Amino acid sequence: MGLLDGKVVIVTGGGNGIGRAYCLGIAREGGTAVVADIDEKAADGVAKAIKDSGGKSLATKVDVANFSSCQEMAKKTLDAHGKIDGLVNNAAIFMSVPAEKGSWQEITEEAWDRIMAVNVKGLWLSSRAVVPAMQQRKQGSVVNISSNMAFNGGLTMMHYVTSKAAVVGFSRVLARRRRARSRITSARLRPEFLNGSSSPKIWLAPLSICYPI
Ligand SMILES: NC(=O)c1ccc[n+]([C@@H]2O[C@H](COP(=O)([O-])OP(=O)(O)OC[C@H]3O[C@@H](n4cnc5c(N)ncnc54)[C@H](O)[C@@H]3O)[C@@H](O)[C@H]2O)c1
């Protein structure tokens, strides 16, 4: 018997890196992992790997910075499974942050806006699309992925670090509102630095190195 038997959990950005590991872990614990990613090929690949090993999964393309795309993600999940028990707001621009890794003065406005649109607004839009289905059933969990860098700062990537600090504020508001009105919970995790491409085996136990905030 698994910890997530019968549960349906959406993981945004589930096609690569840590999100992929969350999906594999959810399926390993008996849940249905809904792999939602802007990278459709990667999402399909993760869902196939899960199904090939006997687990339950659904792939869906989503751009978390676009509300109608988030609504489509929720609808596809509800049409297939009738409910949503969990939402892991994991999608972010991180590994792909480009040359603006240099000084904060060199960050372009375009790069700043895109990071905020995906890493901050994306949480809000995904939650707005999914939480109503949880509210109807008066249960569900939302997990937002922040970063240790939100607390420690960083010498580079000011836009990324700022976006991850916003995740904490967002989560606190959601937690207070949800606690006040229903049994829906909201939590934050802050992973330590991990690099999926250079050390893929580290994904075997991602949650053990994530700390609740
Ligand atoms: N890797 C680390 O060391 C580390 C440390 C702390 C926090 N985090 C956080 O963990 C999460 C995952 O990090 P990662 O290292 O696996 O990143 P990653 O770059 O490997 O994966 C991010 C995923 O999000 C997807 N994505 C990007 N934009 C999207 C959009 N608009 N809509 C939907 N999907 C989108 C990408 O396609 C990719 O699959 C992020 O929230 C990151 O900020 C990572």
Structure description:
Helices cover 46% and strands 19% of the residues. The protein is of the alpha/beta class. The chain has a single domain (8-212), classed as Rossmann fold (3-Layer(aba) Sandwich), CATH 3.40.50. It has a seven-stranded mixed β-sheet with strand order 3-2-1-4-5-6-7, sandwiched between helices. Helix 2 links the parallel strand 2 and strand 3. Helix 3 (67-81) runs parallel beside helix 4. The protein is globular. The protein starts with 7 loop residues before the first strand and ends with a strand. Nicotinamide-adenine-dinucleotide (NAD) binds next to helix 1 and helix 4.
Based on the model shown, name its key terms:
alpha/beta; disordered C terminus; binds nicotinamide-adenine-dinucleotide; 19% strand; seven-stranded mixed sheet; 213 residues; Rossmann fold
CATH class placement = Alpha Beta
Supply the number of structural domains: 1
Note the quaternary state here.
Answer: single chain
How many beta-strand elements?
7
The CATH topology: Rossmann fold
Largest sheet: 7 strands, mixed
Rg of Cα set: 16 Å
What is the terminal separation in angstroms? 29 Å
What is the structural class? alpha/beta
**Strand content of the residues, in percent?**
15-25%
Could you tell me the mean pLDDT?
A: 84
Sketch the topology as an H/E string, one letter per element.
EHEHEHEHEHHEE
Q: Provide the low-confidence segments as ranges.
A: 195-213
CATH superfamily: NAD(P)-binding Rossmann-like Domain
Strand order of the largest sheet: 3-2-1-4-5-6-7
How many helices?
6
The helicity comes to 40-55%
Shape, please?
A: globular
CATH architecture: 3-Layer(aba) Sandwich
